[in-house]
Amino acid sequence: MKHLSRFLVAALMILALGSVNAQDANNPWAISVGANAIDTYPVGDAIDGVPGAGELRGNLFEEFYNVEDHWSIVPSVSYVNVSRYLGDGFTFGVSGSLNRIDKLGDSRPRNELQYYGADGDFSYSLRDLINGEGGWFDPSLSVGAGYTWVESSLDGELGGFGTANAAAGVKIWLGENFNIGLQSKYKHAFEDDGIKHFQHVAAVGIVFGGKDTDGDGIYDKDDACPEVAGLPEFDGCPDSDGDGIQDSKDACPTVAGLAEFDGCPDTDGDGIPDPKDACPTVAGIAALGGCPDADGDGIKDADDTCPNEAGPRANNGCPYQDKDGDGVLDKDDECPDVAGTVANNGCPEVSVEVLNDLNVETKKVLFDYNKASIRTESYATLDKVASVMMEYPTTRFLIEGHTDDRGRDAYNLNLSDQRAASVRSYLTGKGIPASRLESKGFGEARPVASNKTAAGRQENRRVELSILEQ
């Protein structure tokens, strides 16, 4: 085919300009191939009164579909278009075409004339206006410019001229990426030797490419997370910690974890995820928020003063002790340092024998004649009595004062009361709490021997101890 090299140059120009725009943001690139037909007749400017001129041009759109008489068609692929989407329904495309003109209106040139065209057009799709969004019916309008070369019938040389173009077309979408289309384009030549003509195109097209905002290799239309790079297995969403759980479903997206814990880790393996584990690095129990309880007393080790010995919370997790071994726990033992009896709350009870021994000692206490003052030689005896009383810290004593029957009753009663009070005063001075001691004089009312003998009266002049009820 003559001048084929020039067509190839035009085709290379088209491919070079292909970095412009196509269908939509998710499939921006489109390429269409098909066949074209050239018709010079229905372009207007019919020349009346000129012999034979009516054969070349008729009125505008006259015999527009007179394919048999007016259309020049190459029965092969003769048209290619590459376009790219610009946004808001607009695309820009470049196209190249070739043909053999064997019909100029109703006239026939002596030889078929070679035809080459290269065009650039802006197109606007009416599809979304008609169908809402998407749809199979896709009409469009286009405007643009181009350059056409047509072989001269006189010298066989190619002559070129620029054109202003306007077109209307329609595409029928057969799927998401495939369409068939028809277009009629009017090419207006401004130069005197230019040829005004219509070019009709039938083509099949595909759209491809895609917008990949986050650069993860997944086009936005298929990317569930189009603005954040992700993985194909998660439809383009990320898995930052690489634990196999996409971030949007991962409760701990920055730390690798387990699916059973919504992506959170369980560092100590106690079945409690770290965010809910108060002791995430030490295995524990759920009841204590994931913290351990080594002695099983219900108190977590960190709060347990005795973590290896079970004890009540009231005692900070330590068991109650019985230091004196009397069977009464120290917490209930009123005398925790001295063995006592359960009946006496852990304190020792004064036995009859002890009380008798104390009274043996108190009988040795001597007073100045007819006075309540204690003689100094009796101090050691009372010190011993005080020491024994210390061993029974809860026992309360009554200090009794007694006399013989010599003298008046009132005198004897007063004297015995004062002597009992002197003993009480001495014992409190040795550390016996006053609340544990009471004193009372009985005078001559409670003799323990006969007052008729000197020995008997000696026994009756005494200080005795008795036990008071608690």
Spatial strand sequence of the major β-sheet: 1-3-4-5-6-7-8-9
Secondary-structure content class: alpha+beta
Radius of gyration: 61 Å
Q: What is the terminal separation in angstroms? A: 136 Å
Average residue pLDDT:
89
Main sheet record: 8 strands, antiparallel, barrel
Question: What gross morphology would you assign?
Answer: rod-shaped
Number of strands: 12
In CATH's first tier, which class of the domain at 4-208 applies?
Answer: Mainly Beta
Estimated helix fraction = 10-25%
Order of helices and strands: HEHEEEEHEEEEHHEHEHE
GO molecular function, one term: calcium ion binding
Organism: Dokdonia donghaensis DSW-1
Keywords: Cell outer membrane, Membrane, Signal
Protein name: Cell envelope biogenesis protein OmpA
Structure commentary:
- It contains seven helices and twelve strands.
- The protein has 470 residues and is α+β, with helices and mostly antiparallel strands.
- Among the domains are: 4-208, Porin; 352-468, 2-Layer Sandwich (60s Ribosomal Protein L30, Chain: A).
- It has an eight-stranded antiparallel β-barrel. Strands 11-10-12 form a three-stranded mixed beta sheet.
- InterPro entries: Bact_OuterMem_StrucFunc (IPR050330), OMP_bac (IPR006664), OmpA-like (IPR006665), OmpA-like_sf (IPR036737), Thrombospondin_3-like_rpt (IPR003367), TSP_type-3_rpt (IPR028974).
- Residues 443-470 are annotated as: Disordered.
- This is Cell envelope biogenesis protein OmpA.
- One of its GO terms (molecular function) is calcium ion binding.
